[in-house]
Design brief:
3-stranded antiparallel sheet; PH-domain like; globular; ARM-type_fold; Engulfment and cell motility 2; alpha+beta; ELMO_domain-containing
């Protein structure tokens, strides 16, 4: 991510003195900037003649033009001419994305003017124009307002209650223009994400139930904005307001909301766009995070209500058996039954649930299986209790460990990743998707245990195989729980062994001394080949997305290395490019000789500044920064792990340092293995053709005969 665009560096030179580098804050009024530059320049020149560089002249003229345009637009917006006002608002909506123009417009109380236009409502605007023109004017007004606020110059906390009510009114109206509705939803989302105080006000005006109607429309943009606002309300609910979180959890768990998202969004007639996929992923993560409280709650062995749940598990499994009358005999029977249920602590199984995670969540899953899938539960328990002692699958221990594993796989309790679109449609197909997912996986575990003919000593091995089966099945993105079952049936233990063997063979590494010596000789030239590939990729460049709270207002920037490897060029883009971006469009640059170091993860300045991202492991893992003279930094968040490795490797190669990413190690192993195999084939005088063999032609007929003569 580039340095703040509000700060511009200006070089001022004068005869007989050293050049002075100044930082100009474009948020300040133009008069203040001119005064600061003049005072500094005159003081440095010691009475000499001041010479300003072309860059400063350009900035000066540009700021003057922006200031003049802002004043003219503000006057035209407040005029009484319908056409003039409409054109002014239309032009303002385009120019508001420019930080210099925005600074000048805001310094003239432009935000307040736009807010008053919105607060005055339909009555004020319609008095000057037709209802059709009013819709256009309001849409442009809201667009400009949102763009101006997005620069972060003005605090969202200054927004009035009447403005919030007016915007909420547009969202709650049954028939409202699509453009107005889109911008209103986006404004409310930004309020919730950027201000704790506004959260309470917005939550009073807008409920999740009122947003459900916007999910049933055919416009996917409106659906995306509506789900984004639902996510924002859920994500920013204050921790001290437990009731709000409980109400949100109840609403999200309703079949009505889930079925609408499933039928009108996921199974709609339009393909899911990237932003919608991200919002569905966020909703999925936030829904699973409702389990965090139970996951981190230890069982209290002295709590009778909690102990009764364990008694209920025993009763359902061994329903036909009568309890003996004697206390000692009853204890002995309970101990035997708890052992058959697979608990580690046969005397007091409550102790098995005192470790977090998974805490009480594991017991909840077991009870759900026992009550809702009673036949499956009884079959698993009784089937294992009748096996030889060394081959029995301990249901209790397996259920607890499986719950912990599923929490890790689905990242329960972690913040959503800003760049992730990895939602699973099947979790929207059932009201109790988490519990049903557990029920499918516990049956898989029992099946895999039998296929492996496992004993208690093999417990960890079985869990590793089951984790691999589940992750491979999830990667196939089954659209329903039934499809998940089918995928898991195809991933039997024998199939996992076959896949492992196949993957091992593809990465075969010979360990004989001659082969090891050959590897050592080949490695330097392979590393040089990888280095050149990384530098070539940096010359091609990559597009990065700026971190922000409003993803639908996507902002991008592009960075690439000069062909002579001496300068990094970068600059902002209006949209994600489809190919290579010319150097001429990238206005900013950093000489490679000025780069001091490259830092990653938590050491990056932008990760230290954004405390909310500190808990987001995936963002941290894809963040890196270039530190360069004098005490400046260029901040990145890679779109994926591959781009992160490419850029960190390339920058290290550029600075003459070792490339140490996982991608480099993987590429090195693959290329060395291929090169060694080619050389070994050459030793056997096996000629490798320059071109692949031709594809066989399809036969004209499939009526084959065989001559037995």
């Amino acid at each position: 991510m580039p340095p703040p665009s509000d700060i511009v560096k200006v070089a001022i030179e004068w005869p007989g003195a050293n050049a002075q580098l100044m930082e100009i804050d474009q948020k300040k009024p133009l008069s203040s900037i001119i005064r600061e530059v003049s005072v500094s320049a005159l003081a440095g020149a010691n009475g000499g003649t001041m010479f300003t560089t072309d860059l400063f002249i350009y900035i000066y003229i540009y700021v003057c033009v922006c200031a003049r345009a802002a004043r003219q637009l503000l006057d035209r917006i407040q005029s009484h001419g319908i056409d003039a006002r409409l054109e002014a608002l239309k032009e303002l909506a385009k120019l508001s994305a420019d930080p210099t123009f925005a600074t000048e417009f805001i310094s003239m109380e432009g935000i307040g003017t736009l807010a008053r236009l919105v607060e005055s409502g339909t009555q004020y605007l319609v008095s000057f124009c037709s209802l059709l023109s009013f819709g256009e004017m309001l849409a442009f007004t809201l667009t400009a307002f949102l763009e101006l606020m997005d620069h972060g110059i003005v605090s969202w906390d200054l927004i009035s209650l009447s403005f919030i009510k007016q915007i909420a009114g547009y969202v709650n109206q049954p028939m409202v223009d699509v453009s107005i509705l889109q911008r209103s939803l986006a404004i409310l989302e930004s309020m919730v994400l950027n201000s704790h105080s506004l959260y309470h006000r917005v939550a009073q005006e807008i409920t999740v139930g009122q947003l459900i109607g916007h999910l049933q429309v055919s416009n996917q943009e409106i659906q995306t904005y509506a789900i984004a606002l639902i996510n924002a309300l859920f994500l920013k609910a204050p921790e001290d307001r437990r009731q709000v979180s409980t109400e949100m959890a109840s609403t999200l768990a309703q079949k009505h909301l889930r079925s609408i998202i499933l039928n009108h969004v996921i199974r709609g007639n339009r393909p899911i766009k990237a932003e919608m996929a991200h919002q569905l992923y966020v909703l999925q993560v936030l829904t699973f995070n409702l389990l965090e409280e139970r996951m981190m709650t230890k069982m209290d062995p002295s709590d009778q209500a909690q102990r009764d749940i364990i008694f209920e598990l025993r009763r359902i499994a061994f329903d036909g058996e009568n309890d003996p009358s004697g206390t000692e005999k009853r204890k002995a029977m309970y101990t035997k039954d708890y052992k058959m249920l697979g608990f580690t602590n046969h005397v007091n199984p409550a102790m098995d649930f005192t470790q977090t995670p998974p805490g009480m969540l594991a017991l909840d899953n077991m009870l759900y299986l026992a009550k809702l899938h009673q036949d499956t539960y009884i079959r698993i328990v009784l089937e294992n209790s009748s096996r030889e002692d060394k081959h029995e699958c301990p249901f209790g221990r397996c259920a607890i460990e499986l719950t912990r594993m599923l929490c890790e796989i689905l990242q329960v309790g972690e913040l959503p990743n800003e760049g992730c679109n990895d939602y699973h449609p099947m979790f929207f197909t059932h009201d109790r998707a988490w519990e049903e997912f557990f029920c499918v996986c516990i049956q898989l575990l029992n099946k895999t245990w039998k296929e492996m003919r496992a004993t208690a000593e093999d417990f960890n091995k079985v869990m590793q195989v089951v984790r691999e089966q589940i992750t491979r099945a999830l990667a196939m993105k089954p659209s329903s729980l039934d499809q998940l079952k089918g995928k898991l049936r195809g991933l039997s233990y024998s199939e996992i062994l076959r896949l492992r063997q196949s993957e091992r063979m593809s990465q075969d590494d010979f360990q004989s001394p001659p082969i090891i010596e050959l590897r050592e000789r080949i490695q330097p030239e392979i590393l040089e080949l990888i280095k050149q590939q990384r530098l070539n990729r940096l010359c091609e460049g990559s597009c990065f997305r700026k971190l922000g709270n409003r993803r639908r207002q996507e902002k991008f920037w592009f960075c690439r290395l000069s062909l002579n490897h001496k300068v990094l060029h970068y600059g902002d883009l209006d949209e994600s490019p489809q190919g290579e971006v010319p150097f001429e469009l990238l206005t900013d640059k950093i000489p490679v000789s000025d780069i001091k170091s490259v830092v990653t993860g938590k050491d990056c300045p932008h990760m230290k500044e954004k405390s909310a991202l500190k808990q987001n492991k995936e963002v941290l893992e894809q963040a890196f920064s270039i530190l360069y003279d004098p005490d400046e930094n260029l901040n990145f968040v890679a779109p994926n792990k591959y781009e992160y490795c490419i850029w960190t490797d390339g920058l290290c190669a550029l600075l003459g340092r070792e490339m140490g990413s996982d991608l480099t190690r993987s590429d090195l192993d693959t290329l060395i293995s291929m090169e060694m195999k080619l050389r070994l084939l050459d030793l056997e005088n096996i000629t490798i053709p320059e071109a692949p063999p031709p594809v066989p032609k399809e036969p004209s007929t499939y009526n084959f005969t065989y001559n037995y003569g």
